[in-house]
Protein backbone atom coordinates (compact mmCIF):
# COMPACT_ATOMS: atom_id res chain seq x y z
CA UNK A 1 0.00 0.00 0.00
CA UNK A 2 1.23 3.55 -0.70
CA UNK A 3 2.01 6.02 2.10
CA UNK A 4 -0.96 8.07 3.27
CA UNK A 5 -0.17 11.20 1.26
CA UNK A 6 0.76 9.42 -1.95
CA UNK A 7 -1.49 9.33 -4.97
CA UNK A 8 -1.32 7.01 -7.94
CA UNK A 9 -2.04 7.91 -11.55
CA UNK A 10 -3.02 4.84 -13.59
CA UNK A 11 -3.58 4.97 -17.32
CA UNK A 12 -4.95 1.67 -18.58
CA UNK A 13 -6.07 1.19 -22.16
CA UNK A 14 -7.36 -1.41 -24.56
CA UNK A 15 -8.88 -1.73 -28.00
CA UNK A 16 -12.17 -3.50 -27.37
CA UNK A 17 -13.76 -2.66 -30.70
CA UNK A 18 -13.20 -0.21 -33.54
CA UNK A 19 -15.57 2.15 -35.33
CA UNK A 20 -15.45 2.02 -38.38
CA UNK A 21 -12.88 -0.75 -38.86
CA UNK A 22 -9.87 0.24 -36.74
CA UNK A 23 -10.33 4.00 -37.20
CA UNK A 24 -11.87 5.39 -34.04
CA UNK A 25 -14.15 4.86 -31.02
CA UNK A 26 -17.92 4.56 -30.88
CA UNK A 27 -19.31 7.02 -28.29
CA UNK A 28 -21.30 4.21 -26.63
CA UNK A 29 -18.06 2.54 -25.53
CA UNK A 30 -16.94 5.75 -23.86
CA UNK A 31 -20.34 5.97 -22.14
CA UNK A 32 -19.96 2.46 -20.76
CA UNK A 33 -16.54 3.36 -19.36
CA UNK A 34 -17.81 6.66 -17.89
CA UNK A 35 -20.64 4.88 -16.08
CA UNK A 36 -18.37 2.23 -14.57
CA UNK A 37 -15.73 4.67 -13.42
CA UNK A 38 -18.31 7.06 -11.98
CA UNK A 39 -19.62 4.24 -9.79
CA UNK A 40 -16.03 3.51 -8.68
CA UNK A 41 -15.51 7.18 -7.84
CA UNK A 42 -18.74 7.31 -5.84
CA UNK A 43 -17.60 4.28 -3.85
CA UNK A 44 -14.30 6.13 -3.16
CA UNK A 45 -12.15 3.57 -4.97
CA UNK A 46 -11.13 6.30 -7.42
CA UNK A 47 -10.28 9.87 -6.52
CA UNK A 48 -11.07 10.93 -10.08
CA UNK A 49 -11.02 9.72 -13.68
CA UNK A 50 -11.13 10.84 -17.28
CA UNK A 51 -12.21 8.65 -20.20
CA UNK A 52 -10.98 9.36 -23.71
CA UNK A 53 -9.77 7.59 -26.83
CA UNK A 54 -6.91 7.71 -29.27
CA UNK A 55 -8.05 6.13 -32.50
CA UNK A 56 -9.62 2.77 -31.64
CA UNK A 57 -8.12 2.64 -28.14
CA UNK A 58 -10.24 3.24 -25.05
CA UNK A 59 -8.15 5.18 -22.52
CA UNK A 60 -8.94 5.16 -18.78
CA UNK A 61 -7.05 7.86 -16.87
CA UNK A 62 -7.56 7.27 -13.14
CA UNK A 63 -6.27 8.64 -9.83
CA UNK A 64 -6.51 6.75 -6.54
CA UNK A 65 -4.69 5.82 -3.34
CA UNK A 66 -4.28 2.09 -4.00
CA UNK A 67 -0.69 2.23 -5.33
CA UNK A 68 0.81 0.71 -8.48
CA UNK A 69 -0.43 -2.68 -9.65
CA UNK A 70 -3.43 -2.62 -7.33
CA UNK A 71 -5.62 -5.65 -7.90
CA UNK A 72 -8.75 -3.55 -7.24
CA UNK A 73 -7.83 -0.91 -9.83
CA UNK A 74 -6.73 -3.45 -12.43
CA UNK A 75 -9.92 -5.44 -11.88
CA UNK A 76 -11.95 -2.24 -12.32
CA UNK A 77 -10.23 -1.57 -15.68
CA UNK A 78 -10.72 -5.20 -16.69
CA UNK A 79 -14.44 -4.98 -15.89
CA UNK A 80 -14.74 -1.77 -17.93
CA UNK A 81 -13.08 -3.43 -20.92
CA UNK A 82 -15.27 -6.53 -20.59
CA UNK A 83 -18.39 -4.35 -20.46
CA UNK A 84 -17.04 -2.39 -23.43
CA UNK A 85 -16.49 -5.65 -25.30
CA UNK A 86 -20.09 -6.64 -24.63
CA UNK A 87 -21.33 -3.30 -25.96
CA UNK A 88 -19.03 -3.62 -28.99
CA UNK A 89 -20.47 -7.07 -29.69
CA UNK A 90 -24.03 -5.72 -29.45
CA UNK A 91 -23.17 -2.93 -31.90
CA UNK A 92 -21.18 -5.38 -34.07
CA UNK A 93 -18.22 -3.02 -33.88
CA UNK A 94 -15.03 -4.19 -35.49
CA UNK A 95 -12.69 -6.52 -33.59
CA UNK A 96 -14.82 -6.57 -30.42
CA UNK A 97 -12.62 -7.50 -27.46
CA UNK A 98 -9.52 -7.72 -29.64
CA UNK A 99 -7.04 -6.84 -26.86
CA UNK A 100 -8.64 -9.07 -24.23
CA UNK A 101 -6.38 -12.09 -24.33
CA UNK A 102 -7.64 -13.90 -21.24
CA UNK A 103 -11.13 -15.16 -20.40
CA UNK A 104 -10.99 -13.95 -16.83
CA UNK A 105 -9.08 -11.55 -14.61
CA UNK A 106 -6.21 -12.92 -12.56
CA UNK A 107 -4.75 -10.34 -10.18
CA UNK A 108 -2.90 -8.00 -12.55
CA UNK A 109 -4.02 -6.66 -15.92
CA UNK A 110 -0.46 -6.75 -17.28
CA UNK A 111 -0.07 -9.77 -19.50
CA UNK A 112 -3.82 -10.05 -20.08
CA UNK A 113 -3.79 -7.74 -23.12
CA UNK A 114 -4.51 -4.14 -22.09
CA UNK A 115 -1.67 -1.61 -21.79
CA UNK A 116 -0.90 -0.01 -18.44
CA UNK A 117 1.27 2.86 -17.16
CA UNK A 118 1.19 3.85 -13.49
CA UNK A 119 3.12 6.10 -11.14
CA UNK A 120 2.81 6.83 -7.42
CA UNK A 121 4.11 10.00 -5.80
CA UNK A 122 3.37 12.70 -3.27
CA UNK A 123 1.53 15.47 -5.08
CA UNK A 124 3.63 18.64 -5.16
CA UNK A 125 2.36 22.13 -4.32
CA UNK A 126 1.31 22.20 -7.96
CA UNK A 127 1.44 19.02 -10.04
CA UNK A 128 1.08 19.44 -13.82
CA UNK A 129 1.17 16.11 -15.69
CA UNK A 130 0.82 15.14 -19.34
CA UNK A 131 -0.65 11.84 -20.52
CA UNK A 132 0.49 10.87 -24.02
CA UNK A 133 -1.61 8.27 -25.84
CA UNK A 134 -0.77 6.80 -29.25
CA UNK A 135 -2.45 4.66 -31.87
CA UNK A 136 -1.14 2.51 -34.76
CA UNK A 137 2.28 2.21 -33.20
CA UNK A 138 4.14 0.29 -30.49
CA UNK A 139 5.76 1.03 -27.09
CA UNK A 140 9.23 1.78 -28.51
CA UNK A 141 7.68 4.82 -30.23
CA UNK A 142 8.32 6.84 -27.05
CA UNK A 143 12.07 6.09 -26.91
CA UNK A 144 13.06 9.01 -29.08
CA UNK A 145 10.79 11.64 -27.48
CA UNK A 146 11.69 10.39 -23.98
CA UNK A 147 15.36 10.73 -24.81
CA UNK A 148 14.79 14.21 -26.18
CA UNK A 149 12.73 15.30 -23.18
CA UNK A 150 14.93 13.91 -20.41
CA UNK A 151 18.44 13.75 -21.86
CA UNK A 152 18.83 16.19 -24.76
CA UNK A 153 19.75 19.76 -23.82
CA UNK A 154 18.86 20.88 -27.35
CA UNK A 155 15.27 19.91 -26.52
CA UNK A 156 15.12 20.59 -22.79
CA UNK A 157 16.76 23.84 -21.77
CA UNK A 158 16.14 22.96 -18.11
CA UNK A 159 18.87 20.31 -18.24
CA UNK A 160 21.32 23.18 -18.62
CA UNK A 161 19.53 25.99 -16.80
CA UNK A 162 17.51 24.53 -13.90
CA UNK A 163 19.78 23.47 -10.97
CA UNK A 164 17.17 20.93 -9.83
CA UNK A 165 17.39 19.08 -13.18
CA UNK A 166 21.04 19.67 -13.92
CA UNK A 167 22.04 16.35 -12.34
CA UNK A 168 20.15 14.56 -15.11
CA UNK A 169 17.80 11.59 -15.18
CA UNK A 170 18.07 7.83 -15.10
CA UNK A 171 16.25 5.53 -17.47
CA UNK A 172 14.77 2.09 -16.83
CA UNK A 173 15.05 0.18 -20.10
CA UNK A 174 13.28 -3.09 -20.81
CA UNK A 175 14.55 -5.79 -23.16
CA UNK A 176 11.28 -7.33 -24.31
CA UNK A 177 12.96 -10.33 -25.94
CA UNK A 178 15.03 -11.36 -22.91
CA UNK A 179 12.49 -10.01 -20.40
CA UNK A 180 15.25 -8.20 -18.50
CA UNK A 181 15.83 -4.57 -17.56
CA UNK A 182 18.71 -2.19 -17.03
CA UNK A 183 18.96 1.26 -15.38
CA UNK A 184 21.23 3.77 -17.16
CA UNK A 185 21.95 7.36 -16.17
CA UNK A 186 22.40 10.49 -18.23
CA UNK A 187 24.52 12.36 -19.08
CA UNK A 188 27.22 9.85 -17.94
CA UNK A 189 25.94 6.79 -19.83
CA UNK A 190 24.23 8.58 -22.69
CA UNK A 191 26.05 6.76 -25.46
CA UNK A 192 25.37 3.37 -23.84
CA UNK A 193 21.72 4.33 -23.46
CA UNK A 194 21.43 5.26 -27.13
CA UNK A 195 22.75 1.86 -28.22
CA UNK A 196 19.54 0.42 -26.76
CA UNK A 197 16.98 3.20 -27.29
CA UNK A 198 17.89 3.31 -30.98
CA UNK A 199 16.54 -0.26 -31.30
CA UNK A 200 12.96 0.47 -30.17
CA UNK A 201 11.37 -2.78 -31.30
CA UNK A 202 13.40 -4.63 -28.67
CA UNK A 203 14.41 -2.09 -26.02
CA UNK A 204 11.95 0.38 -24.57
CA UNK A 205 12.04 2.91 -21.77
CA UNK A 206 9.56 1.95 -19.06
CA UNK A 207 10.41 4.64 -16.47
CA UNK A 208 12.46 7.78 -15.95
CA UNK A 209 13.68 9.01 -12.54
CA UNK A 210 15.30 12.25 -11.45
CA UNK A 211 18.83 11.27 -10.54
CA UNK A 212 19.33 13.61 -7.56
CA UNK A 213 16.48 12.21 -5.47
CA UNK A 214 15.14 9.19 -7.40
CA UNK A 215 11.76 10.90 -7.88
CA UNK A 216 9.62 9.29 -10.60
CA UNK A 217 9.43 11.56 -13.67
CA UNK A 218 7.80 9.44 -16.37
CA UNK A 219 6.45 5.99 -16.99
CA UNK A 220 5.28 4.23 -20.15
CA UNK A 221 3.29 1.11 -20.94
CA UNK A 222 5.68 -1.50 -22.26
CA UNK A 223 3.39 -4.43 -22.93
CA UNK A 224 3.81 -5.90 -26.41
CA UNK A 225 0.65 -7.74 -27.29
CA UNK A 226 2.18 -9.79 -30.03
CA UNK A 227 4.87 -11.12 -27.70
CA UNK A 228 2.39 -11.73 -24.91
CA UNK A 229 0.14 -13.71 -27.18
CA UNK A 230 2.92 -15.30 -29.22
CA UNK A 231 1.09 -14.20 -32.35
CA UNK A 232 -0.40 -11.02 -33.71
CA UNK A 233 -3.63 -10.13 -31.93
CA UNK A 234 -3.77 -6.36 -32.12
CA UNK A 235 -1.58 -3.34 -31.76
CA UNK A 236 -0.03 -2.56 -28.44
CA UNK A 237 -0.62 1.17 -28.81
CA UNK A 238 1.29 2.74 -25.90
CA UNK A 239 0.64 5.40 -23.24
CA UNK A 240 3.13 7.56 -21.36
CA UNK A 241 2.71 9.71 -18.22
CA UNK A 242 5.12 12.63 -17.71
CA UNK A 243 5.38 14.92 -14.66
CA UNK A 244 6.32 18.47 -15.59
CA UNK A 245 7.65 21.80 -14.22
CA UNK A 246 9.61 22.72 -11.07
CA UNK A 247 12.48 20.24 -11.35
CA UNK A 248 10.94 18.25 -14.19
CA UNK A 249 10.83 19.30 -17.86
CA UNK A 250 8.51 22.23 -18.54
CA UNK A 251 5.20 21.43 -20.27
CA UNK A 252 6.64 22.97 -23.44
CA UNK A 253 9.83 20.91 -23.17
CA UNK A 254 7.81 17.70 -22.83
CA UNK A 255 5.67 18.63 -25.85
CA UNK A 256 8.75 19.71 -27.82
CA UNK A 257 9.90 16.08 -27.67
CA UNK A 258 7.17 15.36 -30.25
CA UNK A 259 7.91 18.26 -32.61
CA UNK A 260 9.85 15.99 -34.96
CA UNK A 261 7.59 13.36 -36.58
CA UNK A 262 10.01 10.45 -36.26
CA UNK A 263 9.42 7.08 -37.90
CA UNK A 264 7.75 4.45 -35.74
CA UNK A 265 6.49 0.96 -36.40
CA UNK A 266 2.86 -0.11 -36.37
CA UNK A 267 1.18 1.54 -39.35
CA UNK A 268 -1.16 -0.61 -41.49
CA UNK A 269 -1.44 -4.19 -40.26
CA UNK A 270 1.15 -3.43 -37.60
CA UNK A 271 3.68 -3.99 -40.34
CA UNK A 272 4.83 -0.62 -41.64
CA UNK A 273 6.98 2.28 -40.55
CA UNK A 274 5.44 5.73 -40.65
CA UNK A 275 5.80 9.14 -39.00
CA UNK A 276 4.26 9.72 -35.56
CA UNK A 277 1.84 12.62 -36.05
CA UNK A 278 0.84 14.69 -32.98
CA UNK A 279 -2.85 15.61 -33.15
CA UNK A 280 -5.81 16.67 -31.02
CA UNK A 281 -8.14 13.93 -29.79
CA UNK A 282 -10.71 15.05 -32.39
CA UNK A 283 -8.13 14.34 -35.10
CA UNK A 284 -6.96 11.03 -33.65
CA UNK A 285 -8.85 8.93 -36.20
CA UNK A 286 -6.21 7.18 -38.30
CA UNK A 287 -7.57 7.17 -41.82
CA UNK A 288 -5.00 7.19 -44.59
CA UNK A 289 -3.68 3.63 -44.99
CA UNK A 290 -5.09 3.23 -41.44
CA UNK A 291 -2.77 5.98 -40.29
CA UNK A 292 -0.38 7.58 -40.15
CA UNK A 293 0.36 6.74 -36.49
CA UNK A 294 -1.06 9.32 -34.05
CA UNK A 295 -0.22 10.64 -30.62
CA UNK A 296 -2.34 12.88 -28.41
CA UNK A 297 -1.24 14.79 -25.29
CA UNK A 298 -3.66 15.55 -22.44
CA UNK A 299 -2.49 17.94 -19.75
CA UNK A 300 -3.97 17.91 -16.25
CA UNK A 301 -3.32 19.85 -13.07
CA UNK A 302 -3.71 17.47 -10.16
CA UNK A 303 -5.56 18.90 -7.19
CA UNK A 304 -5.49 16.38 -4.35
CA UNK A 305 -5.98 13.67 -6.93
CA UNK A 306 -8.65 15.52 -8.91
CA UNK A 307 -7.80 15.61 -12.61
CA UNK A 308 -8.29 19.26 -13.49
CA UNK A 309 -8.40 19.29 -17.28
CA UNK A 310 -7.70 18.08 -19.85
CA UNK A 311 -5.91 20.54 -22.06
CA UNK A 312 -5.69 18.87 -25.47
CA UNK A 313 -2.19 20.16 -26.26
CA UNK A 314 -1.47 18.93 -29.76
CA UNK A 315 -4.59 20.62 -31.19
CA UNK A 316 -2.56 23.82 -31.04
CA UNK A 317 -1.46 25.53 -34.32
CA UNK A 318 2.23 25.40 -33.31
CA UNK A 319 2.09 21.68 -34.17
CA UNK A 320 0.72 22.36 -37.70
CA UNK A 321 4.24 22.38 -39.09
CA UNK A 322 5.00 18.98 -37.52
CA UNK A 323 1.79 17.58 -39.01
CA UNK A 324 2.66 18.99 -42.43
CA UNK A 325 6.10 17.40 -42.27
CA UNK A 326 4.55 14.15 -41.03
CA UNK A 327 2.31 14.02 -44.09
CA UNK A 328 5.24 14.72 -46.43
CA UNK A 329 7.13 11.85 -44.80
CA UNK A 330 4.00 9.68 -44.90
CA UNK A 331 3.67 10.31 -48.62
CA UNK A 332 7.34 9.51 -49.20
CA UNK A 333 7.15 6.30 -47.18
CA UNK A 334 3.91 5.19 -48.87
CA UNK A 335 5.57 5.32 -52.28
CA UNK A 336 7.75 2.36 -51.18
CA UNK A 337 4.62 0.18 -51.13
CA UNK A 338 5.56 -3.33 -49.99
CA UNK A 339 9.29 -2.55 -49.84
CA UNK A 340 11.38 -2.07 -46.73
CA UNK A 341 12.00 0.22 -44.95
CA UNK A 342 8.31 1.21 -45.23
CA UNK A 343 7.36 -2.40 -44.63
CA UNK A 344 8.92 -3.78 -41.44
CA UNK A 345 11.70 -6.37 -41.68
CA UNK A 346 10.29 -9.88 -41.91
CA UNK A 347 11.27 -10.66 -38.31
CA UNK A 348 8.99 -7.84 -37.11
CA UNK A 349 6.01 -8.37 -39.38
CA UNK A 350 3.00 -9.13 -37.32
CA UNK A 351 0.83 -10.51 -40.08
CA UNK A 352 3.67 -12.21 -41.85
CA UNK A 353 2.83 -14.50 -44.72
CA UNK A 354 6.45 -15.62 -44.95
CA UNK A 355 5.92 -19.11 -43.46
CA UNK A 356 3.02 -19.78 -45.89
CA UNK A 357 4.94 -18.53 -48.91
CA UNK A 358 8.01 -20.53 -47.89
CA UNK A 359 5.93 -23.67 -47.37
CA UNK A 360 4.29 -23.21 -50.75
CA UNK A 361 7.64 -22.78 -52.49
CA UNK A 362 9.34 -25.60 -50.63
CA UNK A 363 11.64 -27.49 -52.93
CA UNK A 364 11.91 -24.60 -55.36
CA UNK A 365 14.70 -22.90 -53.39
CA UNK A 366 17.80 -24.65 -54.78
CA UNK A 367 20.88 -24.74 -52.58
CA UNK A 368 23.78 -23.06 -54.37
CA UNK A 369 27.34 -24.43 -54.17
CA UNK A 370 29.50 -22.68 -51.49
C1 LIG B 1 -5.22 -2.10 -36.43
C2 LIG B 1 -4.44 -1.75 -37.59
C3 LIG B 1 -5.03 -1.92 -38.92
C4 LIG B 1 -5.36 -3.35 -39.25
C5 LIG B 1 -5.92 -3.48 -40.67
C6 LIG B 1 -6.34 -4.90 -41.00
O1 LIG B 1 -4.81 -1.46 -35.28
O2 LIG B 1 -3.34 -1.33 -37.47
O3 LIG B 1 -4.16 -1.37 -39.89
O4 LIG B 1 -4.24 -4.15 -39.08
O5 LIG B 1 -7.05 -2.64 -40.81
O6 LIG B 1 -7.22 -5.32 -40.04
P1 LIG B 1 -7.93 -6.75 -40.05
O7 LIG B 1 -6.86 -7.77 -40.18
O8 LIG B 1 -8.65 -6.78 -38.74
O9 LIG B 1 -8.85 -6.77 -41.23
MG1 LIG C 1 -8.45 -2.12 -33.56
MG1 LIG D 1 -5.29 0.96 -31.71
Produce a short descriptive summary.
With 370 residues, this protein is of the alpha+beta class. The protein contains ten helices and 15 strands.
What does this molecule look like?
Strands 5, 6, 7, 8, 9, 10, 13, 14 and 15 form a nine-stranded mixed sheet that branches. This protein has a four-stranded antiparallel sheet with strand order 2-3-1-4, covered by helices on one side. A two-stranded antiparallel ribbon has the order 11-12. It has 370 residues and is α+β, with helices and mostly antiparallel strands. The protein contains ten helices and 15 strands. The protein is 25% helix and 27% strand. The model has no long low-confidence stretch (mean pLDDT 94). Helix 1 (27-42) runs antiparallel to helix 2 (71-90). Fructose -6-phosphate (F6R) binds next to helix 8.
Helix-strand topology string: EHEEHEEHHEEHEEHEHEHEEEEHH
Broad structural category:
alpha+beta
What is the helix content? 25-40%
Mean pLDDT over all positions: 94
Bound molecules: fructose -6-phosphate, magnesium ion
Shape: globular
Strand content: 25-35%
Number of helices: 10
Task: Determine the N-to-C terminus distance.
Answer: 64 Å
Q: How many whole angstroms does the radius of gyration measure?
A: 20 Å
Instruction: Report the biggest beta sheet as strand number plus sense, adding barrel if it closes.
Output: 9 strands, mixed
Give the tally of β-strands.
15
- Taking pLDDT < 50 over at least 5 consecutive residues as the criterion, the unreliable ranges are none
Amino acid sequence: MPKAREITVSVIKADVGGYVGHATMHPELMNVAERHLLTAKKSNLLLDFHVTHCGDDLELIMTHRQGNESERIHKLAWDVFMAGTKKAQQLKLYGAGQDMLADSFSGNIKGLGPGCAEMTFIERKSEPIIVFMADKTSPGAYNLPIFRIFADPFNTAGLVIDPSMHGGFSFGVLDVLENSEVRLTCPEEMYDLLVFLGAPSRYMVHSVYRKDDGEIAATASTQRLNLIAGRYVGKDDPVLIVRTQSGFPAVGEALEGFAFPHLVEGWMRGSHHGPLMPVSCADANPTRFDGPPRVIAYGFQLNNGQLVGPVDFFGEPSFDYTRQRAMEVAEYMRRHGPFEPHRLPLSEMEYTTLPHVKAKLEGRFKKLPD
